[in-house]
Write a structure and sequence with these properties.
Layout (H helix, E strand, L loop, with lengths): L6 E4 L4 H9 L3 E4 L14 H17 L9 E10 L2 E3 L5 H11 L3 E11 L4 E12 L4 H10 L19 E5 L2 H5 L3 H12 L4
Parallel strand pairs: 1-2, 1-3
Antiparallel strand pairs: 3-4, 3-5, 5-6, 6-7
Helix pairs in contact: 3-4
Length: 195
């Protein structure tokens, strides 16, 4: 394998992203980005996550006086028929989202951006996820766990909702919030900017 950056600044508070990066042997300094996450009019889900990931990486990179390691940012959203499903506002919102995904296939888009002193590298991963039919009782039971909070689309595939996935086409880690293949590729490309 080519050399890959083993130390980065992670522009995210996500414990899942931290855990996934540790699988790659990457040490992180956590420095969350503060950017407006509003969706622009007529913005497509892929364009939305890519814009946010790049904005987060640039925002945190701009705070580095002498950048010695890259800044990695990511953003994940769930989409169904072109509609973006972000983090739920409350339990009722989460319930409505999960009802929408019941028995059908939705997309999970995760964008990654890596800022170096010379450039911003980026990639988007899209995964198709098919849920089984969800009864009101199944959804209510899941909402009671609290797992849906602060998660795009109101679920975490690595938790109880993983039992609802009938089919997945794409990246499991992408659905978790950080596709490892694309992340490793970008960190390998970033290496040369620090040599």
């Amino acid at each position: 394998m080519l050399a890959m950056m083993k130390r980065i600044i992670l522009a995210s508070q996500s414990p899942r992203r931290l855990q996934l990066l540790s699988q790659l042997g990457v040490e992180c300094i956590v420095q969350p980005a503060d950017v407006d996450e509003s969706v622009l009019p007529d913005e497509l889900p892929k364009d939305y996550v890519l814009r946010l990931a790049i904005a987060k990486a640039k925002a945190v990179a701009a705070l580095q006086a002498n950048m010695r390691v890259p800044v990695l940012a990511a953003d994940t959203t769930v989409a169904l028929a072109g509609r973006i499903f972000g983090k739920p506002e409350d339990d009722d919102d989460a319930t409505e989202m999960l009802k929408a995904f019941s028995g059908c296939t939705h997309e999970v888009h995760t964008a990654i951006a890596v800022a170096t002193p010379k450039q911003v590298l980026s990639a988007v991963n899209t995964t198709q996820v098919t849920f089984c039919e969800l009864s009101d009782a199944m959804i209510a039971s899941y909402i009671a766990t609290g797992e849906h909070r602060d998660k795009a689309g109101s679920y975490g595939i690595q938790g109880h909702a993983g039992a609802w996935v009938q089919h997945l086409s794409g990246s499991y880690t992408g659905v978790m919030g950080l596709p490892l293949y694309e992340t490793a590729q970008l960190l390998m490309q970033a290496q040369s900017d620090f040599e």
